[in-house]
Amino acid sequence: MIGRFAPSTTGEAHPGTLLAALLAWLDARARGGRVLLRLEDLDRERVRPQLATHMQDALAWLGLDWDGVVVQSECAPAHADALDALAAQGRLYPCTCSRADRAGRRRAPDGGWAYDNTCRDRALPPGGWRAVTAHHVRARLPDDRVELVDDGGLDLSQTPARDMGDPIVRRRDGVVSYQLAVVVDDGAQAITDVVRGRDIAPSTATQVALQRLLGVATPRYRHHFLLLEAARGDKLAKLHGSIPLPALRARHSADELCGLLAHAAGLVDAPAPCTPRSLVARFAWANVPARDRVARFDAERGLTIE
């Protein structure tokens, strides 16, 4: 069993980051498996080198250790090989559509706008996908239904080519998309079990479709509850600077914060200080609640999770 925690290095760790890391780590450790840390750093506009260091420091401070650390940008040759394999199957095409072109047409399972595969009949230029510089490159998915239920009983079934639309696999700025990179990286790192937040669940069928095209094994999936912002009701996000770690560390010790997260996840009866290692023996997914929780923070009370 090999699990992974794969945060983007686009902002400081927050309580949602640490909760997701803790649950992925506990899932592996409680089953005697290995767990990797993969630093997802492909977004050139938002990634900063110091944020990767911050992420590793934050996870170590909480008490999490890893059986290996992978830097996603160092996997670029494997990403290019995957694009070549899809091109050899005749699956790639340039897409001239903008986000505004999709707006208002048809909702996708993730709440965004589905892509209607408008450019499917376009051919790659001479030189292939590497010669596409001004447009996205998409992968033409089979029109097959993907039947899949995750380990928590969440139905992930879709016909992704229709429900979400053909995915972007290389952005117009030359960056390989999350949808392709996560499939390639999970396969290359022999990931057998993926534990991640429920916000990613609608992407799973698309990833499975890409796995099948690339001959990559499908891991077991489990999607857990989210911590939400009190004001907006959205999930905590690094992009918004949601309750950054320096504020948490100024108010809580690592053991206190671990206890708060463990209590929110149903792993302990009261939010008393503890360590990740102390939770391993008692960890069970049956105790983890399904509903999302709201996280609040102020300098006087510190972090509260409702």
Query: Low-confidence runs (pLDDT<50, min 5 residues)?
Result: none
Q: What is the CATH C-level name of the largest domain?
A: Alpha Beta
Oligomerization state? single chain
Distance between the termini: 33 Å
> How many domains comprise the coordinates?
2
Q: What is the approximate shape? A: elongated
CATH superfamily of the largest domain: HUPs
If classified by CATH, what would the architecture of the largest domain be?
3-Layer(aba) Sandwich
Mean pLDDT: 94
- The sequence of SSEs as H and E is EHEHEHEHEHEHEHEEHHHEE
Structural class: alpha/beta
Helix content: 25-40%
Can you count the helices?
10
Write down the CATH topology of the largest domain: Rossmann fold
Rg over C-alpha atoms, rounded to the nearest angstrom: 20 Å
Per DSSP E runs of 2 or more residues, the count of β-strands stands at 11
Would you mind describing this structure in some detail?
- The protein is an alpha/beta fold.
- The protein folds into 2 domains: about 150 residues, Rossmann fold (3-Layer(aba) Sandwich); about 110 residues, HUPs (Rossmann fold).
- About 30% of the residues lie in helices and about 15% in strands.
- The chain contains 10 helices and 11 strands.
- Strand 10 and strand 11 form a beta hairpin.
- Helix 6 crosses helix 7.
- The two termini are about 35 Å apart.
- The model has no long low-confidence stretch (mean pLDDT about 95).
